[in-house]
Amino acid sequence: MKTAIIAIGVAGLLASACATDPYGNSTSNQTVRQGAIGAGLGAVAGAIIGNNVGGGNAATGALIGGALGGTVGAVRGSQADRNNQQRYRDNRGQYYYCYDNNQNECYWENGQRRY
């Protein structure tokens, strides 16, 4: 059981460490949040399933479940982050993205902060 708990913790850390926000926006980064949640839920489900399957190993199930859950959660969170972006064009025709309605967190297409 100790191995399963360690595997669950490692899977969650690995999943949340793999996703970064290139725009430096820490408040609305759904990719990391949903990836970590998916990894945790997948690791728990994998440990339970791996333990209940005849001859299965809970630690292996937790690692596989954590990896799959983290991947699915990160993909879903990435889509949510894209939906939260608001795209604008300035008077020179250059596009920039904002993460809030007040346009306080805006970035050019190359990822540099607009202001």
From TrEMBL:
UniProt keyword terms in alphabetical order: Signal
Keyword Cell membrane: no
Signal peptide (UniProt feature, chain positions): 1-19
Pfam families in UniProt: Gly-zipper_YMGG
Keyword Oxidoreductase: no
Domain YMGG-like Gly-zipper: 29-78
Superkingdom of this protein's organism: Bacteria
Protein's UniProt name: 17 kDa surface antigen
